[in-house]
Amino acid sequence: MLARVAENIYWMARYLERAENTARLVSVNASLLLDLPRGYEPGWLPLIDMTGSRELFDARRRRPDEREVVQFLLADRDNPGSIAASLTTARENARTLRDLLPTEAWELLNQFFQEFTDTLDAGLAKRTRYNFLKQVVLTSQALGGVLAGTMSRTDAYTFMLMGRYLERADMTSRIVDVRAAQVLPAAQELQPFRTIQWTNVLRSLSGLHMFRLTRRVRIVRVEALDFALRDRQFPRSCCFSLEQLAACLQSLPRSDTAIGTLRSACGYLAAADLATPDPAGLHQLVDQLQVYINDVHACIAQTYFPAPLQNP
Questions:
Q1: CA-CA to 157 of 20 to 30 Å: which in 126, 141, 233, 280?
Q2: How many C-beta atoms lie closer than 10 Å to residue 196's C-beta?
Q3: Which of 211, 235, 209, 232 lies closest to 223, judged by CA?
Q4: Model-level pTM?
């Protein structure tokens, strides 16, 4: 398998996962604003922090209000974390992989891209945004189902899964980091709404129902963090994603370094004390987890992808 092909399918999967996660975040944040009492709202800027694009957003001198943030995350093609840019790059990578991808998957992705482009205005309008974003998530999941049900289990499929799970672990850690630090004001009348903060973390991961089904406890800080970071059955938790990534790497040669880093990350998560850290301590915990994730990506890129061109 050509290194260029491996890189393209890896990044195709990462960008598709990124588009789906971004659609979830925007939709869930709008729902959170409806749950809080009038006059109190966390705002939209934390979504920029979650996607890691704060520096780019600030450089554009944009206002941190709903309209600007939603446009930046949905439609700005110069923002590599936006849904529009992610789908554009994923489609371009898929176009170069048409010999490897099932025809049904390519047709669905191409249709997905066209429909997203044609109906993007509906995503920017408040009244139609929810249904628009719901369709983005459902179509992304349908595409994942088509690939899972029709693609041969070759190295190409392995690299696709690697891209998906690495991106998923990265986004889950970002959601936990920013949402956990985004505490509500200390006003006495907001005490009954503390649970909303952690419920929102679970909703951002589409994990609220699974949390209630498997944990059967109140939604409190330590339980929500443990579920999002360490649950080994929930497919969007960091631990599950990293373990699936390690399983993929085991089928490839020269993967010992990356697998070792993944085991260190899982051990770090397992030993972390989630009951005591304040927002600063939790931020430090997630920062170290991000270092592990970045190291795994660097190992994958160095081992399996084409070397970057050197200037003469």
A1: 233
A2: 16
A3: 211
A4: 0.91
> Token pair for residue 265?
């990350």
**CA–CA gap between residue 115 and residue 47 (Å, rounded):** 24
Ranges of each domain in the chain: 1-150, 154-307
What pLDDT is recorded for position 194? 66
DSSP state of 251: T
Q: Tell me which residue has tokens 């960091």.
A: 238
Asked if 87 contacts 140 with a C-beta cutoff of 8 angstroms, the reply is no
- What is the rounded distance in angstroms from the CA atom of residue 232 to the CA atom of residue 238? 9
Angle between helices 221-230 and 194-204 (to 10 degrees): 10
Side-chain half-sphere exposure of 174, counting CA atoms within 13 A: 21
24-49 core/surface letters (b: 16 or more CB in 10 A; e: else): bbbbbbbebeeebeeeeebebbbbbb
Is the Cβ–Cβ distance between 74 and 120 less than 8 Å? yes
CA distance 51 to 49: 5
Amino acid residing at 102: P
pLDDT below 50 — which residues of the chain? 183-189, 309-312
Q: Are 73 and 26 in contact (CB under 8 A)?
A: yes
Closest CA to 32 of 50, 57, 54, 52: 50
The number of beta carbons lying within 10 Å of the beta carbon of residue 92 is 15
Under 8 Å between Cβ of 254 and 303: yes
Residue whose pair of structure tokens reads 């920013």 in the numeric block: 178
Round to whole Å and give the CA distance between 51 and 22: 8
| Whether the Cβ atoms of residue 5 and residue 156 lie closer than 8 Å to each other | yes
Give the pair of three-digit tokens for residue 297. Answer: 């990506």
- Mean pLDDT score across all residues of the chain: 88
Query: What are the phi and psi torsion angles at 217 (to 5°)?
Result: -135, 170
